[in-house]
Amino acid sequence: MSERKPSGAEVEILQILWDQQPCSVRAVHEQISKTKDVGYTTILKQLQRMQEKGLVTRTPGVGKSFNYSAVEPAKKTKTKLLDRLLETAFRGNVNDLVMHALGDAETSSEELDAIKKFIADLETKNT
Q1: What's the predicted TM-score (pTM) here?
Q2: What does the pLDDT profile of the chain (127 residues) look like in tens digits?
Q3: Cα 9 from Cα 55, distance rounded (Å)
């Protein structure tokens, strides 16, 4: 099977599925409708395409409806997306990616502490 590469809209749907799966089209539509004006049939078609791409599975729901679930866990998909971003936007330069992310974001002291701990854990693991 080819590498599954979700689009931005597909990632938005996957976020909902990872939090609440399995989900009906209606449940996904209700979540997305909170932030953008999108039709029910648009979400249905998107989920059908995602099923064809192998990003989601579909099981019978109530009545004629179906429930959808993400095929891969969030961490695996996010790693693929980050790897793609790293290679395409930063030419594989991890330092550039991290500096760009930290330099452009408003980072709280709690987030900085978590980042420092993560780096310390990496350094311990690599020694």
Answers
A1: 0.79
A2: 346 689 989 999 999 999 999 999 999 999 999 999 999 999 999 999 999 999 999 999 999 899 999 999 999 999 999 999 999 999 999 999 988 888 877 888 898 899 899 999 989 988 7
A3: 13
